[in-house]
Structure formats: C-alpha cells, structure tokens
User: Fold this.
Amino acid sequence: MRNGKMPTVSIEQAQNNYTKAVKAGLLKILSKMGISLLSSYCGAQIFEIYGLGKEVVDLAFKGSMSKIGGLNGTSSFWK
Assistant:
C-alpha cells in the first residue's frame, strides 16, 4: 500500500474483505462436501484433529478429541 501497488483500505474494510472471503471459501468447501445447510454441518465432527493438545482442542473445537495429542499451552499459542 505504501508503494501505491495496492489500494489503501481501512481496518474495517480489510476485516469486511476477510470475512467475505472466508465465507465464500467455506461455502465452496461445504458445497463440494455435499453440505447444503450449515446447520447440518455444525456438530457433525467429520474431521480428525492431529497435532493439537487437549487444551487447544477444548478451546477451539469443543466436543472433539485429538487421538494423538500435540501442541499445548493455549495462552502462548493464541497470543
């Protein structure tokens, strides 16, 4: 942005752009998985968690489990 190669955007606009991109990406992924409603995906737990310890899993993926464990220490991980 400083060099003029990208348009200058405010923090709010950057956050809105990010949110819009994430929603579009998730919609594309879910539709490829055959999930038409987000409510049918919530709580389905159709994924495996590798490399995350119990503390992180409980914080980010409540109700799921990590069979092999991994990264712990949520306070340093999320800061």
